[in-house]
Amino acid sequence: MLIVGELINASRKQIREAIEAEDFDAIAGLAAAQREAGADYIDVNAGVFVDREPELLVRLVETVQQACDAPCCLDSPNPAAIEAALKVHKGPPPMINSISLEKNRYDVLLPLAAGSDVKVIALCMSDEGMPETADQRLAIADRLVDGLLQNNVDLDNIHVDPLVQPVATNSAYGEEFLAAVQRIMAGRPGVHTMCGLSNVSFGLPARKFLNQSFLLMAAARGLDGAIINPLDKRMMANVAAAGALSGSDSFCMEFLKAYRAGKLPE
Amino acid sequence: MLIVGELINASRKQIREAIEAEDFDAIAGLAAAQREAGADYIDVNAGVFVDREPELLVRLVETVQQACDAPCCLDSPNPAAIEAALKVHKGPPPMINSISLEKNRYDVLLPLAAGSDVKVIALCMSDEGMPETADQRLAIADRLVDGLLQNNVDLDNIHVDPLVQPVATNSAYGEEFLAAVQRIMAGRPGVHTMCGLSNVSFGLPARKFLNQSFLLMAAARGLDGAIINPLDKRMMANVAAAGALSGSDSFCMEFLKAYRAGKLPE
Asked: Do residues A176 and A138 make contact, with C-beta atoms less than 8 angstroms apart?
């Protein structure tokens, strides 16, 4: 499973304060720690600093790239910030988080991704709002994937995020998401899926436990990427278990490695 | 999810020794504890006492029924033992664990279940051996379900066990099982699925953790019953999480009840 480390997000108090204090060493440390814990990409988000977002997203990319060898996941609703960050990003191509069918995002981000090797998270959201059913997610996903393919983005670089919604709002939201994952993966062999998990537990107690549980359930439906906290040991152990139990981890090699490294619960 | 408590099984040393010492109070205590922890049925198995199995299975049923109000799951490869246990079982109908396509089992157990209200675990096993693929499981399940329906067993009383096989033997075994669960549930709306989990982790470390993880993955594919240790708190918490996240637990009522009772991890 492709792991995007989610911790360098200025909506988190620790990160916002570090940025305000220009304490980029703290952020570098968090990048290195997430990489060490198994993150394949390091998410960077400076969205709360609306007026300075492009400049700060660039600064976060530079900080992460000095601290570790993982590429960044450029996380912004602001195409100008993503464009600025793409310009300074070095080494293996970064990931864009995210393009959607919202016209003001789609029209600006599509040309940035077109014909390039960047990975793109294709979020199932449109100007009609958030999808509720699997059918609605599929309809948006199809249009996003078609648009990206027509603009010479490889299918292998497309990671559809079907958009997790809280089960406390509607008991069916979990299954509608899970069904969408399975149908997207089956309908486009070679495409990927990806999501943040934490919305699923919004409004409920024991949220960390619910998010950890939902990762296993989504993996069972084919989810092959997640934006998570890689310092959450149980979550990373669940990633290892999902690989062994779904068969994506051949001969359980990664699972056994995690066991030998003391990373699994008893 | 329908929970069958698995602990009263004479293949476990504690139970074998209690039976040998005629310490049925210990067994009664274990029945009550499993019921208290949420078991819907209490599995009873005296299979290691080959020569005395019918007599001892009867004794286990009587012991469990004096200790708690849950019906028994009569677990034996020996039709004579199941027949004897059925005769003494009182109150809500018990569960038979299990009928299969193996001729010597099928021919004797089918008449016992025919036209009755007992619940039947239909194990995907035949005289050709254990199935490896989802297709093989489906073929056996279809014949078992058809045979039970033709003998006036309600679809709602049929719990197909697609047979868990160890991923350490073949990385694909987990997914073949999971795919079978989904296809069986989709192909026969109203039928149930059920399984023991522990075989999946055979030959690997961190088995308890793997079994707990596999429960969530199987629930995500539609599994609605499991033969587990209800005293394993994490396992039972996972059952609660699976209900909330899959939508089978309307308004997350059971999940919230488990939370308020202090049964969930942080």
From this structure: no
Which one, of A253, A200, A203, lies nearest residue A226 by Cα?
Answer: A200
ipTM for the assembly: 0.97
DSSP A71: P
Q: Could you give the angle at which helices B233-246 and A207-220 cross, rounded to 10 degrees?
A: 70
- Contact between chains at B206 and A244 (C-beta distance less than 8 A): no
**Is there a contact between A243 and A255 (Cβ–Cβ < 8 Å)?**
yes
pLDDT profile of chain B (266 residues), mean per 10: 98 97 97 98 97 97 98 95 97 97 95 97 96 98 98 98 98 98 98 97 98 98 98 98 97 97 93
**CA–CA distance, B46 with B19 (Å, rounded to integer):** 9
Considering only alpha carbons, which residue of chain B is nearest residue A204?
Answer: B256
Given a contact cutoff of 8 angstroms between Cβ atoms, the answer to whether B255 and A204 are in contact is yes
Residue A85, CB-side half-sphere exposure with 13 Å CA sphere? 38
A262 at B interface, C-beta within 8 A: no
Which of A216, A251, A259 is opposite residue B205, by nearest beta carbon?
Answer: A259
What is the chain A residue with the closest CA to B218?
A: A220
**For residue B171, which residues of chain A lie inside 8 Å, CB to CB?**
244, 247, 249-252
Phi, psi (5° rounding) for residue A105?
-90, -45
Terminal CA-CA length for chain B: 22
Look up residue A166 and give its two tokens.
């809280």
From the list A136, A53, A152, A73, the residue with the least C-alpha distance to A101 is A136
Count interface pairs A-B at CB distance under 8 A. 120
Task: Write out chain B residues lying below 8 Å of A216, CB-based.
Answer: 213, 216-217, 220
- Backbone conformation region of residue A75, classed left if phi is above 0, alpha if psi is from -120 to 50, else beta: beta
User: What gap in Å lies between CA B72 and CA B75, rounded to an integer?
Assistant: 9
> Which of A207, A215, A216 should we substitute to test contact with B (largest number of B Cβ atoms within 10 Å)?
A216
**Is any Cβ of chain A less than 8 angstroms from the Cβ of B245?**
yes
Whole-number Å distance between alpha carbons of B180 and A63: 48
Q: Do B213 and A167 touch (CB under 8 A)?
A: no
The answer to whether A213 contacts B266, with C-beta atoms less than 8 Å apart, is: no
* CB pair distance less than 8 Å for A242 and B209: no
pLDDT one-digit tens code per residue, A50-91? 999 999 999 999 999 999 999 999 999 899 999 999 999 999
Q: How far apart are the first and last CA of chain A?
A: 22
